[in-house]
What does this fold into?
Amino acid sequence: MENIENMEKQIYLRQNIQIEPLVNKWFAWVHLISPATAALNLFDRYVRIMDSYVEYPELHADAVKNPEMRGGPFIDLQGEKVEEVAKLINDIKENNKELYEFTVAIKELHQLLKNKAKGFSLEPLYEEVPDKLRGYVELYYDINNNACFRFFEALLYKSPYYAIGSQSIALSEIVKDKERPFIMSTPRLPGNDVIHLPISFENKGLDELFKMKNTPQTYEFIKEKLGVDIPNEDFFKSFFTTEAPPKYAKYEGEGIRTRYFGHACILVETKNVSILLDPVLSYTYESDLSRYTYLDLPDQIDYVLITHSHQDHILLETLLQIRHKVKNIIVGRNMDGILEDPSLKLLLDNLGFENVYELRDLDKISFKEGSITGVPFLGEHHDLCINSKLGYVIRVDGYSILAVADACNIEPRLYQHINKVVGDVDVLFLGMECDGSPASWAYGPLFPEVMEREADRSRRGRGSNFKEGKKLIEAFNCKEVYVYAMGQEPWLKHILDLEYTNESNPIIQSNYLIESCESNGIVAERLFGEKELLSEKKQKMAELTN
It folds into this structure.
């Protein structure tokens, strides 16, 4: 450990220090923050997983080793730390009693509407709404006379049901070849190799901490800014260094530079504007895989674009670390108050982000050199009422990119209609994880009743296959096609727990697509690790040819 006892010494946060935002010691994602989904996930997903582990630790240890069980509800602690998991269960139940009563109330309301809402006025039922939900919900019928309810979600963030006191940050050093456990199935327990800071995600002291990756401060400065008790302070000091990192070289080219950072993370830059999509970044540490990292981000990011609410596309681990760099965040507008579609704007607002804007389908944001247009994102969400999902057409100096993440082209006419509005595009970024998970995998705790197995397995959260992707390319007359968002980079392992072989259907389908593109004179590639594209301004090219 470097000697940083001199409180006036200028120090940096080391680049290989990873952070994990936690809620009740579980990795934070959208459905563990928005109050209603968080309550249901906490008790109907995570407590159940932990109860199972305490009773059958050996079963979990064996399941984790089985590739066919990958991504399942099995805790990866080698059958150990049973007492610690049991303690975490007790702590959650003791510290979240009101939240538990909230989950019970939600289930009771579902049952109330099922039993008593038969097409007649819902007004008399307001008196029977469970007390914990009174004033937080509106009852309504859809046009088929199915009774439903919606939350006043903004109010929930101001209520006792927003568990801000359960938030914390875990910091640890990246160890080469040591994999992090899957975030959806394994809690983050205390240990000698990790620091748990009892700090809320909105705390601006975190911005000061992450600025120190590039800008030095004194230890006394950051300790004061964090404003919390730091356990094992000597160990915490080891996360800092006096060695300055390499400086970021701002892009000053005349054209457009597009960099692929892995999975669905793309950075589009000119010398005047920067646009970052679905930030999921690798840390800077020794690795055999060449890649872009946090050090390759500009000092200021003009726009961050979020395609949808799944944990591999709105990753708080990354977003919190770049919050101080971001001027504007663009998200899709949700269906207000619908349980399965939490507001990304409300979530980010309450996590301390500024200038968060919602777009509807075909809304456009213009800037000096171009525009960003939100386009409909079809499929991938298990036939649920999810509206907070968008693809994006980015136009910069006449050059155009369409990024659709995991959109599934199940209705090709949609994108034909969209093309008539937004025009052709030069480059398409398309996800092809075309197997997908069943509906219960991500949304199970939200369903009031367990889905029938066959129905559950039929409603896959999948992206486009070969035929669907080909139709998308034809709709926009793309000149270049890049298959991305396949979750194969090693820094995605703890987020998705996916591993493909050459025989995996998404690989086979994407190979077909690439071969089809190449046979038709279209540049095509399945991305992995890193990629850089350089394009001249079309206006400049036009001037040269005239």
Summary: The longest helix spans residues 35-55.
